[in-house]
Amino acid sequence: MTRSAISRKWWVILLQGIFMIVLSIIIFNNPDAVLSTLAFMLGVIVIATGLIGLIAWFVITKEKRDMFSLIGSSTVLIIGIIMVTNTGITMKAITLLFGLLVAAVGVILISGSWNERKKWSLWWIIASIGAIALILGIKSIIDVYSGAQSISIIIGISVLLSGIGLVILSFLKKKIMIVVDNKKYK
Question: Is residue 66 assigned to a domain?
Answer without folding.
Answer: yes
